[in-house]
Amino acid sequence: MLLCYRLIASFLLSICFQLLPTATADLPPTVWINGSQPLTGTLSPDGLVESYLGIPYAAPPLGPLRFSRPIPFTGSYANFSATEFGPSCPAALSGGTLAAFDDIAGIGKYLPPHMRDALHDARAQMTPMDENCLSLNVFCPAAKNPSPLKPLLPVMVWIHGGAFQFGGSSMYPGDPFVRDGIALNLPVIIVTFNYRLGALGFLGGSAVLKDQQSANAGLHDQRLALEWVSKHIEAFGGDPSRIVIFGESAGAQSVYMHTVSHHIQEQKPLFSAAIMQSGSIIPTGYVDDKGPEQLFWRLAENTGCDVTDGFAALECLRYNATLDAIIDFQRNLVRNEQSGIITAYLGWSPRSDRDQSGLLPAPVHELSMTPRAIPQITGNQQDEGTLFALVLNATTGKETEELFQSMFGRASTQQIHQALTLYPDNPFSGAPFDTGLRNAVTPQYKRLAAVLTDIIFQAGRRLALARVPVAAVPTYVYQSTALHNIIPVLGTFHANDLIWQWREDEDPSLRWPGRPGQGILKVPSKAAVAAATQAKVYRRYFIAFATHHDPNIGSGLPMWPRFSDLGRDMLGVGPSMVYVDRDTFRTEQIGFFAQNYAGFMM
Ligand SMILES: *[C@@H]1O[C@H](CO)[C@@H](O)[C@H](O)[C@H]1NC(C)=O
Ligand SMILES: *[C@@H]1O[C@H](CO)[C@@H](O)[C@H](O)[C@H]1NC(C)=O
Ligand SMILES: *[C@@H]1O[C@H](CO)[C@@H](O)[C@H](O)[C@H]1NC(C)=O
Ligand SMILES: *[C@@H]1O[C@H](CO)[C@@H](O)[C@H](O)[C@H]1NC(C)=O
After folding, report:
1. Separation of 74 CA from ligand 1 center, angstroms?
2. Smallest Cα–Cα separation from 44: which of 36, 56, 52?
3. Does residue 34 have its Cβ closer than 6 Å to ligand 1?
4. Is residue 40 in a domain?
5. pLDDT at 72
6. What is the pLDDT of residues 229-261, one digit of tens each?
7. Which of 335, 336, 392, 393 has most ligand 4 atoms within 8 Å of CB, for mutation?
8. Catalytic pick from 14, 135, 249, 368?
9. Span 449-476, average pLDDT
10. How far apart are CA 405 and CA 387, in angstroms?
11. Per-residue pLDDT reduced to its tens digit, 55-67
12. In a domain, 419, yes or no
């Protein structure tokens, strides 16, 4: 009888919400996977958030599975202790893209201390790397914060960014989101996961293309994680029919790829809405393009796999090359080569493998012709390109032209010249935008930053947006100028939104309770106001959107008008307030890249 009572009690705890009070404070929160496998997590000290960490969703991607598409986890979750983040996937540098740019280009020197601290915190939170890294994490409102009106909760699945080669899910603890959801009375469940990065996840080249099971392994990891969530989230109290996928940078590009991969026959859709922060269509072509082919052979040469036959080289990379040798090669690229940090122009990135039954049968910009028409939010930081321009090495107009020729090998001479004309050699029109002559740290810096902003970020977003039937599909657009004239040289730089979204809370009493390694940020009050505004934009609007497919319902924030082809209204995100703006800037320049997109693929 006692045992029976215990089982019932822990079953009640197992769902993320419950209606009956129970006196089971000492039992760890438990969910029952597949109805029979009890998996235990952790309750936050204040009793608000349950977290289940490090849950394996795939078989270890080792041995024959290195570079290969993942296969589902086949073990049992019974008595699995989901109390620690799993290892991060191997990367050249620890701590995500911003930490990498700090290492290589010293961006920290431009940032105020509280932002620098956030960067260092993110790095400290990244768990050690291991090739066996395919796990996911679930954060949900705890049992004693019930939402009686909504039996199953909306789910937000985060795909982390990092140029497809940096970062890990442990940098993004879901607690602040869950707390904001509770505070808004819009409770949500957050899921984060790891996927393979760099060469292990996105090795290209003709040998990889021939062995189709080895192309875009990291993207297939993401897909498998989404399948796991769809299948099992109900055990956590989540609603599998209300899943929003969201991500930033490479994570947003990934989100976009999943929205155009709908040719895969799904019994039920894996998600029903999407949020893309600084990423949409990715300007890449095919797995066997020149860039990834060269990278494949350079990797082989540097890992003792310099054999003439591509198949043998791939087998050697799979079975003989040490993880250290692979990661050392990636690290050398990042540290020692111009554009190494963007890996020889997006070298480790998803590309079409021409597999009609796979995720990318054609380049993304072609797949974008028939997007899945689902509610979406898409937006950018005003000066996305500044970080990337900092590491490029062109100081004269002629060097810029040469750089463009090597970056955009498909573009005709005429297209290159048109681009150079549209982005004149004049700091007034460069990025950080609207800063006159200021911030021109080198003569071509602002020009390069402007071009990279538009080709990697804005052109893809505008092109994708033009292909969404926005009259029928709730679509919301934003653009942040939050750091305009505040941060020198970088302006409103790529990925600054992550700092507010994941690392700062508006109410200091809510900050990062409990977990080791999570520092409490000491923010001066003006910056605190700014941080609160930013956190609200990237959390509260998004939570409302996840719940209602409308960021306005329940968010308690100023009206964010829906995007339309005619009005082109978007949310402007300022340092301490939001406003209504229009998505009409740089029409000619961005339009040129959008119209000539195939020519400027990397
Ligand atoms: C869950 O149960 C189904 C059928 O009952 C089984 O096919 C599947 O392998 C199980 N999954 C796990 C992860 O145990
Ligand atoms: C899980 O733990 C319970 C209680 O300790 C035990 O009875 C059960 O056999 C365990 N199950 C597995 C699969 O280890
Ligand atoms: C890889 O290792 C196997 C077994 O140790 C060996 O036979 C083979 O020659 C190695 N391949 C290369 C390219 O070194
Ligand atoms: C930058 O360019 C100069 C002149 O072309 C060259 O000497 C230098 O090695 C380059 N630096 C890097 C990091 O590529």
Report:
1. 8
2. 52
3. yes
4. no
5. 98
6. 999 999 999 999 999 999 999 999 999 999 998
7. 393
8. 249
9. 96
10. 21
11. 999 999 999 999 9
12. yes
pLDDT tens for 180-190 read 999 999 999 99
In a domain, 340, yes or no: yes
Do 96 and 167 meet the contact criterion of CB atoms below 8 Å apart? Answer: yes
- Residue 529: per-residue pLDDT: 75
pTM: 0.92
Please work out whether the CB of residue 406 comes within 6 Å of at least one atom of ligand 4.
no
Say how many Å lie between the CA of residue 111 and the centre of ligand 3.
49
Residue identified by tokens 């005709």 is 412
- Please report the atom of ligand 3 found closest to the CA of residue 304: 14
Ligand 4 contacts CB of residue 396 (under 6 A): no
Residue with tokens 């290969």: 68
What per-residue confidence (pLDDT) applies to 483? 95
pLDDT score of 344: 65
How many CB atoms neighbour CB 158 within 10 A?
Answer: 25
- The structural domain count of the chain equals 1
pLDDT band at 494 (very low <50, low <70, confident <90, very high): very high
- What's the CATH code of the domain at 318? 3.40.50.1820
Cα 89 from chain centroid?
A: 14
Catalytic residue, chosen from 384, 504, 548, 549, is: 384
Residue 428 lies in a domain: yes
The closest-lying atom of ligand 2 relative to the alpha carbon of residue 79 is 1
Is residue 307 in contact with ligand 3, taking CB distance under 6 Å?
yes
Q: Is 338 in the pocket of ligand 4 (CB under 6 A)?
A: yes
CA distance 189 to 460: 30
Q: Which domain holds residue 173?
A: 85-122+149-507+523-600
In tens, the pLDDT along 6-18 reads 333 344 444 444 4
User: Is 135 annotated as catalytic?
Assistant: no
Ligand 1 centre distance from Cα of residue 303 (Å): 39
Q: Which contacts (CB < 8 Å, 24+ apart) does range 581-585 have?
A: 581/479, 583/462, 583/465, 583/477, 583/479, 585/479
Starting from the CA of residue 227, give the closest ligand. Answer: 1
Q: Whose CA is nearest to atom 3 of ligand 3?
A: 320
Residue 592 tokens read as: 């040129």
The half-sphere exposure of 281 on its side-chain side, counting CA atoms within 13 A, is 33
pLDDT at 43 over 80: yes
Give the span between the Cα atoms of 35 and 31, in whole angstroms. 9
Q: Which ligand is nearest to the CA of 78?
A: 2
- Please report which confidence band the pLDDT of residue 514 belongs to, taking 50, 70 and 90 as the band edges: very low
- Among 73-77, 164-168, 345-349, the range scoring the smallest mean pLDDT is 345-349
Distances (CA, A) of 65 to 81, 193, 214, 508: 25, 19, 9, 45
What integer pLDDT is reported at residue 402 of this predicted model? 94
Average pLDDT, the chain: 89
Which ligand gives the minimal distance to the CA of 75?
1
Tell me, yes or no, if 249 is annotated catalytic.
Answer: yes
Q: Quote the CA–CA distance of 277 and 538 in Å, as a whole number.
A: 9
78 Cβ below 6 A of ligand 2 = yes
What is the average pLDDT across 563-572?
97
Residue 197 has pLDDT above 80, yes or no: yes
Please pick, among 232, 258, 494, 548, the residue that the annotation labels catalytic.
494
- What is the pLDDT, as a whole number, of residue 27? 85
> Is-catalytic flag, 549?
no
Distance CA 148, CA 19 (A): 7
Q: What percent of the chain has pLDDT over 70?
A: 89
Distance 34 CA to ligand 1 centre (A): 6
